[in-house]
Amino acid sequence: MTTVCVNIDGDQVAGGFGRARALAVATVEDGAVTDWQEFDVRWDVAHDQGGEGSHHARIVTFLREHRVDTVVTGHMGPPMQNTLAKLGLRVVLEATGDAREAAVAAATD
Fold first, then answer.
1. Model confidence over 41-59: pLDDT tens digits?
2. Separation between Cα atoms, residue 82 and residue 7, nearest integer Å
3. Among candidates 107, 59, 47, which has minimal Cα distance to 83?
4. What CATH number corresponds to the domain at position 10?
């Protein structure tokens, strides 16, 4: 079982993880999504409120609360990549297309 967080725009993978408007947290087992929950995180608004450290802490809290082990997004800046690497999370960048398919692909790679 893999828990994948996907930056989403509708049913598609979105870019800019630190400025995500919405995320999906998917449980992937045996090559299929067995659970899919969507969250309106509004990090696009929160990004510029407070310092970078508080914003990264907000993101880390979300990922830990949802027991995420893989993150899928179109783009992520180096500081956020560094933060997630320290957490031991796998990050899949430059993802595009259908978000559910991207979650399955990330979980099976």
1. 987 665 556 655 576 788 9
2. 18
3. 59
4. 3.30.420.130
